[in-house]
Amino acid sequence: METREQALAQDAALYAAQFGVTPAEALRxxxxxxxxxxxxxxxxxxxxxxxxxxxxQHRPDYRIVVLLTGSEPVxxxxxxxxxxxxxxxxxxxxxxxxxxxxxxxxxxxxxxPGARGAGYDQRTGEVVLLITPAxxxxxxxxxxxxxxEQVSGVPVRVVVxxxxxxxxxxxxxxxxxxxxxxTNRRNRCTSAFVVTNGETNAITxxxxxxxxxxxxxxxxxxxxxxxxxxxxxxYRDVQINGSADxxxxxxxxxxPAGSLRQVQTWxxxxxxxxxxxxxxxxxxxxxxxxxxxxxxxxxxxxLCGGPCSPTWVTVKGPSCVxxxxxxxxxxxxxAIGIAKGxxxxxxxxxxxxxxxxxxxxxxxxxxxxxxxxxxxLLIASARHGLRRVVAELHDAILLVDMDDxxxxxxxxxxxxQAVADDDHQVAWLDEVRRCAVDPDGSAAALAxxxxxxxxxxxxxxxxxxxxALEQVRRLxxxxxxxxxxxxxEIGLGDRRPMDxxxxxxxxxxxxx
Length: 512
What we know:
The protein is α+β, with helices and mostly antiparallel strands. It has three domains: 94-161, 2-Layer Sandwich (GMP Synthetase, Chain A, domain 3); 165-360, Thrombin, subunit H (Beta Barrel), CATH 2.40.10; 374-512, no CATH class.
């Protein structure tokens, strides 16, 4: 088992090779990268109305760059010993750009019929639109860019890319094996992190891997991993398989080298910055590290069981090949995500890969971490009123500070709606993709994707059809364009949709 220092030193060796610095300087930078997360989270809250992006700059000097809208200057500062430089003049905030991308650019079909990818670049404050060489030749990149900006109202950068994107396809072979019922061949994926629902531990991989898996250890011994559930639509690609032999939050950063690490914590996608140096292990490509490029990426086509949401994060290539599906994305002992797909050039070289943040693990599952204690849980049912109160390990929590205008009131008479897409038992911050409060009040069905109390943050609601019925994309709702509208129940027994449009705060319904 590697210590924290050994784990970061291993990652720092790859950083030093990529950026031409000494191993000692690389280690200093990676420690500062993790230590500065809290500071950049605070900056994001402080400048929420102006924030276009936060990024890590590696050359010529190591620094944090904050991009803001408007012209009012902000004095530079430091965070964890790193210079923080403020730049102004961005044309749109991060939130405005992503909202415009959802509304106009992901389904830019009238003007650009072919499939495309789109993501947000925090370094430049631009939506990046990936188009094929054929589209560029027939329509012209400048014409496409101008039309995209006209439609969306935000800055757009057009990048010509063959869009040879696919899931990190499973191949015949080794580490986690399963029978592909379509081809009747043995396939291989890579396991990611140990997860827990508070009672049971299990192992994660990608949803497009075989359902029934066998874990193959380095000594050849095997463990059967029966499938618990699989979630592969829009913003998720994760499968959870039972593993009675996973009591500890261990993962391999480099299995052939025997580099075993222990998850200490996890990083939310809201805290992930362009330029963050992250690592990945795949059973085919092995251990590699590179920098985050695009936040809020929407892969092209129907790679997510239909259109993909702009919730994926891309990492620069070239180390990604088939067989890496489901592998862990991490830095040091911090869990970050689960690898999903790759983008290749015409020669087959990996341009970038993208991952699902651990934020999107299906409730009540969450990343297991060393030394974690299950937080006290006060369970209230929005449908049946107060059902039971359970303090799992400690005394009951009466106040929950979520950095909203003030402290939450005593929980005994409150039915909390979902604050974000994850489902840890006590919310940290009221930011999008942070933690929900009551797991049993914000769970989504597995296959039917019922709307009801979906565990999604209520923020920007795109210009789409509102749902008149519960089930999405069924025959009686043939005019519904997508299943990604944010719908929530208003009160007890009220099943009608609500037009939230540009509401920006989490909803807390107080019972009578």
